[in-house]
């Protein structure tokens, strides 16, 4: 109902589909084990040796990828017991143990790198995303990822963004219409592209258009765009765009977004800020695995 105040509701935790996890881990293990398996471990450890391993954090961050680590050890050996000591989305500190794995030592060693690769990469994204989210705290703006992701890793990287408190933009070319500058160049104008998109789209498909200036924004609003991406606009121009919009469309700022600029962009009043930095520039979180032989 018009005039009803918005209610802030905390989002439910994100969840990865089990088949995605199983297939990704299977592929990664096959890549690592090759045709002969872990020959170093086979050469040095007796088949009967058991061990206990702990995954340990070496720096402050946000966890993501526990499910993939669990699956890596499950696939490498049914005998292994994986005990998670944290959950995805938890903030962790240096020296903190986040998981315990016990069972056959050969299996632990052979699954270690795949488990850590996923967790270090995804937790790095979650940790960097949280930095951006903290920078815009109190502004109402949401930090969003883009389609600039590692090929084959999009679902996991976008999940990691959610673990860090960010939001997901479209996952692919098939789940939302985003009219970019090259589409506009071929279509002839912002209005022509938006009208054509609205005629094509189903009633559940959002139509967003990228604009470079306020004149194009006005054209997009007149054409009935659901959302407008304000590309590479300075904070002053973004504030003018928010006034011009008058709450008609959902406004997203993009381009030139980094950890130093994001606060001023958020203070302009835009609803969303999209950046590839949180997926493409995040450093892996330092996580290690230490083994202790059972007595």
How would you classify the helix and strand content by structural class?
A: alpha/beta
**Would you state the CATH class of the largest domain?**
Alpha Beta
Taken from the alpha-carbon principal axes, the silhouette is elongated
Total number of domains: 2
Query: Beta-sheet strand percentage?
Result: 15-25%
Structure description:
The chain has eleven helices and twelve strands. By secondary structure, it is α/β, with parallel strands linked by helices. It has two domains: 18-127 and 283-293, Aldehyde Oxidoreductase, domain 3; 133-280, Aldolase class I (TIM Barrel). β10, α10 (262-266) and β11 form a beta-alpha-beta unit. α8 packs parallel to α9. Mean pLDDT is 94; it is low at 1-5.
Brief overview, please?
With 295 residues, the chain is of the alpha/beta class. The chain has helices at 18-33, 39-44, 66-76, 105-135, 154-163, 181-187, 190-200, 214-223, 235-245, 262-266, 277-280, and strands spanning 50-57, 61-62, 81-84, 91-92, 97-104, 142-144, 177-179, 207-211, 227-231, 250-254, 272-274, 287-293.
